[in-house]
Amino acid sequence: MKDDNDYIEESLRKIIEGLTSYHDDIEIEVNETSDIVKYVVFVNRADQGKVVGVSGRNIRALKTLFIAISDSYGEPIDVVLKEPKIMSCAESQRYKPDGFDAESFGDTLSLVLSQTLENEPEIEHFQKSEDEHHFLLYSNEIYDELLESIRVIFEAMGKVTGTTVKINMK
């Protein structure tokens, strides 16, 4: 599953980067055993709350999304957030987004969905205002729990740039 691990790790990294401010401090360790592939994520302490989300909402959504990805690869995957290795932000470079990049955001959404679904859905982007973007997914393969997880994660990613993101399905 080496090639698959690279794609999965790339997707996980893009999502974590979308949720955090200290990108240089993101570390992902892949621990593979005979029965599971575990992705252990370390982020800067200042970003840990963003990855976890209110009442654990983001991390639960992330785990649900990667369970769906593991179903498509046929091998169990777990995502675990560990205590940060870096205890201080003093020496870390903070990432300051220039604003919302709809194309990059759509590419990340497409990358994640291509690993989850048999047929990659068409994604349509609508800009409602300068700071509000809607993405419409055309697919009959996305079930409710997966759609909710995608919404939670990608809406949280939008908040990092001060943008409202809405994801709906048609």
Describe the structure.
With 170 residues, the protein is of the alpha/beta class. The protein folds into two domains: 2-81, GMP Synthetase, Chain A, domain 3; 102-169, 2-Layer Sandwich (GMP Synthetase, Chain A, domain 3). 44% of the residues lie in helices and 22% in strands. The longest helix is centred in the N-terminal third of the chain and has 18 residues, at 2-19.
Concise account of the structure shown:
This protein is 44% helix and 22% strand. It has 170 residues and is of the alpha/beta class.
Present the secondary structure layout.
Elements: H1 2-19, E1 27-32, E2 37-42, H2 45-52, H3 57-73, E3 77-81, H4 102-116, E4 122-129, E5 132-138, H5 144-160, E6 164-169
Parallel strand pairs: 2-3, 5-6
Antiparallel strand pairs: 1-2, 4-5
Helix pairs in contact: 1-4, 1-5, 3-4, 3-5
User: What is the strand content?
Assistant: 15-25%
Topology as a string of helices (H) and strands (E)? HEEHHEHEEHE
Rough outline: globular
* Distance from first to last alpha carbon: 33 Å
Q: What does the main sheet amount to?
A: 3 strands, mixed
Kindly report the name of the CATH homologous superfamily of the largest domain: K homology (KH) domain
In the CATH hierarchy, the architecture of the largest domain is 2-Layer Sandwich
Tell me the CATH topology of the largest domain: GMP Synthetase, Chain A, domain 3
Enumerate the strands of the largest sheet in spatial order, edge to edge or round the barrel: 1-2-3
Q: Percentage of helical residues?
A: 40-55%
Question: Please, how many helices?
Answer: 5
> How many domains, as an integer?
2
Oligomer: single chain
CATH class category name of the largest domain: Alpha Beta
The tally of beta strands, per DSSP, is: 6
Whole-angstrom Rg: 16 Å
What would the average pLDDT be, to the nearest integer? 87
Low-confidence stretches: none
